[in-house]
Amino acid sequence: MNGILPLWKPAGFTSHDCVMKVRKLLKTKKVGHTGTLDPSVTGVLPIAIGNATKVVQYIIEAGKSYEGVVTLGKSTTTEDQDGEVVAAKPIEKPITREEILAVLKQLTGEIVQVPPMFSAVKVNGKRLYEYAREGKTVERPERRVTIYELELLDNQESYAGDTVSFPIRVKCSKGTYIRTLAVTIGEMLGYPTHMSKLVRTSAAGIVEEQCITLEDVAEAMERGTIQEKLLPIELTLEQLPKYEIHDTLAVGVKNGSVLPIPDFLENVEQPIAIYYEQKIIAIYKKHPTKTGLMKPDRVLLVN
């Protein structure tokens, strides 16, 4: 059983909860998720099964899309609707569409974020949320992320009330905290803010229409059709440069051989997906000491 299970994560489950549930349903230990989603967030969570667990790190590198609701007027400990309110400020005057669009434009591109205290990032070997639960705040490392697209999803011209909310769509790089982005949007508009709703609509090329629920997984196991529900690994690694090889080289790749970098990929800095008979059999990287050569980083079995 090898491939990507396109799971639609339910609210109330951590990504780890989903992995444990899938392991139990599929009766296999070779299961891994491809990026953490907060418990309250629903949406696309690709789950790697079997050999696909070898390339999880590359699936994580792929871009993601989200739709959420930004609520101005209150901020929380967790930056989302689950935390305790720590600041409140009534909206003093209507906020115009133009003001919001100007902020979204400024935040499109490469930005710097500081991970929230309620997150799974490790500092000195300890998860930030563990510090947060102890009531501690520690210094967190900044990270650079890329916001490819940031759209306002409704047609309102003005927003007014003690609190105001508006929906956004975000396409971003790995490592982006959307709730932190919401807080930044609010800060730039002059108000405490939190993300009051969030759904991941795509990850690694997988969209909602391709996803199945945990209930669907259980049913497919009962019917013996679970393999039909798995997506090929290739679908989630389309962002990697592709090198199709022949029979002789395939034997070497399976044995972990060093290969010459083909001319058309000599200037590529990304890992390279090695294909044989239209399937990925390995991921290679440039050799650190031998010019013009590349070495295996992950080798998958040929089906």
Compact overview of the structure:
This protein is α+β, with helices and mostly antiparallel strands. The protein is 24% helix and 34% strand. The longest helix is centred in the N-terminal third of the chain and has 12 residues.
The name of the CATH topology of the largest domain is Pseudouridine synthase
**Contiguous uncertain segments of 5+ residues:** none
End-to-end Cα distance:
11 Å
Q: What structural class is derived from the secondary structure elements?
A: alpha+beta
Strand composition percent: 25-35%
Strands, helices and their partners?
Blueprint: E1 3-9, H1 15-26, E2 31-33, E3 42-49, H2 56-61, E4 64-72, E5 74-76, E6 85-88, E7 95-96, H3 97-106, E8 109-113, E9 122-123, E10 126-127, H4 128-133, E11 143-152, E12 158-159, E13 164-172, H5 178-189, E14 193-203, E15 206-207, H6 214-223, H7 226-229, H8 233-236, E16 242-244, H9 247-254, E17 259-260, E18 272-276, E19 279-286, E20 293-299
Parallel strand pairs: 3-14, 16-18
Antiparallel strand pairs: 1-3, 2-3, 4-13, 4-14, 5-6, 7-12, 8-11, 9-10, 11-13, 14-15, 17-20, 18-19, 19-20
Helix pairs in contact: 1-6
